[in-house]
Amino acid sequence: MIISERLPAELAARLSGYRMEQDAIGRSTASVFRLEGEGLPALYLKVEEAGPFGELADEAARLGWLKAAGLPCPDVIARESDGERNWLLIGALPGTNLANASVLTPLARVELLAAALLDLHRLPISSCPFDHRLEKRLPVAKARMEAGIVDEEDFDAARLGKSAAELFAELESLRPGGEDLVVSHGDACLPNFIASDGRFSGYIDCSRLGVADRYQDIALACRSIAHNFGEALVLPFLIRYGLPAPDQARLDYYRLLDEFF
C-alpha cells in the first residue's frame, strides 16, 4: 500500500512481511491498519497528522499505564514521528469488538461491557495520572472548537443545525455541580471493547482514558447500545453496572461534551 512507502525506515523494516488492510470502524482521526503476515502476530498501525490535537502519544501513555494497572489492553510495540506524521504500532487483542461479536447475543455483549467498565471504574483514581475532569476537558473542547475541528455536520440528530459555539455555551451553562470521579475509558462505545471465547479480552482506543465523572462512560455506552441493539438493552446494561436509575441530565451533558471530540 502507499502508506508503506511513507513509513520511517526502522518501522518499515520491522513490518517487513506484513500485509496492511485499513480498518474503517470507529471515528478516530487517525488512520488504522490491521497488519497480518504468515507466521507473524497480528498488529495494528495507527497514523495521524502531527499537531496539537494528535492523540497517539496520549494513547501510548495510557496503554502503558493500563497494562501496568493489570487490565487487558494492547501492547505498545513502537512509536515514531517525523514532525509531519505520528505512528503507533500496537499488538492485536484476541477476539472481536462488542459491536461485531455476533457469536454472542446482544444481551451477553452489553453485560460484558458493563463488567469491563466496572473493572476500570474500580481502579483507584489516585493512581491515574491522566486528569479529564471538566475543568481540564472544557478548555480542550473550546480549543478544538476555535481550531475549527469540531464537525458540526456530525452532531447527534437532536443537535444538528446548531453551531459549535451554541453547544459550547450549553456546556458552560449546564455544567453539573460536582463529579463522581472514576478512571474513565473516555470513549466507552461497543467497538472499543474486545471479547474472545465469550469473555472480555481488552480495552482499545484508550487515548481519552483519564479521571472523569463515571457518566462520561455511562452516557456513551448507553448511546452505543441503543444505536447497535435498540433501547431495550440499555436497562439491562445499567442494571448489570449497578445504576438502574441514572441521572438523565448527566447522560445528556456528557453526550453534549462528546460532540467536541
TrEMBL record:
Mg(2+) binds at residues 192, 205. The keyword Magnesium applies. It comes from the Bacteria. Belongs to the aminoglycoside phosphotransferase family. Its EC number is 2.7.1.95. CDD domains: APH. The active site is at 187 (proton acceptor). GO terms for biological process: response to antibiotic. It comes from Rhizobium vallis. This is Aminoglycoside 3'-phosphotransferase. Residues 24-250 form the Aminoglycoside phosphotransferase domain. It catalyses: kanamycin A + ATP = kanamycin 3'-phosphate + ADP + H(+). InterPro entries: AGP_Transferase, Aminoglycoside_PTrfase, Kan/Strep_kinase, Kinase-like_dom_sf.
